[in-house]
Design goal:
This protein is mainly alpha-helical. The protein folds into three domains: 155 residues, no CATH class; 82 residues, DNA polymerase, domain 1 (Orthogonal Bundle); 196 residues, Orthogonal Bundle (hpI Integrase, Chain A), CATH 1.10.443.10. It contains 17 helices and ten strands. The strands form four sheets. The chain has a three-stranded antiparallel beta sheet, with helices on one face. The protein has a three-stranded antiparallel beta sheet with strand order 6-7-8. A two-stranded antiparallel sheet has the order 1-2. The termini are far apart.
Amino acid sequence: MPLVVAEYGAFQIVVKYLHQKQKGGVWYFRRRIPEDVQRHYPNLNKAGVMFVSLKTKNQSEAAQKANQMALEQEALWKNLRSGELETTKDVDAAAIALLDSFGFAPYQGDRLDTENAHYGRFLDELHFQAGTHPDVVDNNWQDQLPTVHHRAAELLHNNSKPPLLLSEALTEYQSIKGEDPQSRQGKTRAKVVNDFASLFGDLPITRYTRQNANDFRDHLLAKGNTTSTVQRRLNDIRPVFRTVAREHELEDKGIFEAILIAGLGKDVTAREPFTTKEILAIQSACREIDDDKRWIVALLSESGLRLAEAVGLRTEDVFLNCEYPYIKVVEHEVRSLKTKGSNRTVPLVGAGRWAVERAIEHQKNGFLFPKYINFSTTPFKHKADSASATLNKWLIRFSPKDGGKKTMHSFRHSVQDRLRDTGAPEELRNAICGWKNAGVGASYGEGFSMERKTICLSKIVLETEVNSADEAGSQPTKR
């Protein structure tokens, strides 16, 4: 009977094949074995049920072990029925399940009791699969074994575990580093590693070569990535090899170290900031249309926020009833932050303050911009990419001659330019926009006061009406 191990609102997590003889006791894996493969399980009971101790009283640990054992069994059945398995990982899983059916575990080596009756049955099965007879001398008989049975024999007689597969190395790396696999960085790293494995196979990490790394670089370039993006992707996969090799005392061949990328950085297209006149026109249009999309645009135009930072704002991040209104940019389960320096407080001034005041009146479930929050997932997820596509398309009308080069991200560049023009020091500009300041001293103290940041950011606020003089080409006034 399936066991409910967790409940989240309307959702339940159910685990099959778990059994406990008595409450608080050891958990067991219990599963009926299909009739067509039962002959490969000499230790089944009369009902054809596999019953194996998971050697733990912890329900969570037992659930993970049961899941792994179920996957191994299914890989074995697939092999026994069709003789086909797609990956090295599937072969290993099926081999481990085969050993388990005879009561063995991998890597017993010198500790293996060859006088055990189960071992005799296992040898009989191997000879049957190889088409040989135990009494006939044939030194090469194991070469005739099917892939899974050959691998099972290898695993049983080995004394030590082989190097981790790349997929396993990724899991271990993220565990060691405390990297959430569901975070933006965690997903990006997994995507890069899986891309690499799809080209060269999911192999033990010591099997890959420098040529594989160079070919992967070429593969990324051929997909149309910029040289800078390719460098970031190589930086995502490099520490997986380096860290896991160190932890397991394996040879680190450094295949991803100092990979050469021709023309690195020369293909970067400079992001263009909006002009003052364009910002005035955009802010004026935002106030006129006055909807959730335009509130996001207005907020970015006078805060220096990243789009995802704005889309993920919650009501608890907003502080309006104080001398210097501000928002708090913090990481939460719906939206991660790009860097540690992104965690900050940002004053609300001008069009940015107006936008937040309007948005908070229309909040839903505690989020300022609910249209761009997916409430159907657990946890909720932001839809900044969707917002980016929609808003970038709308912004084209304000700088049509630039061919869509000016995007929502251009506001960060504009805010930096405008702050720089006021004479704001770099450290203060970085504190507002969320860039890390260099030097040990930058990490000391609480940083700039909200008063200082508000005075600084207020200096870039523009008039919200474009007068006739502006249309004639003169510079708008500031307040």
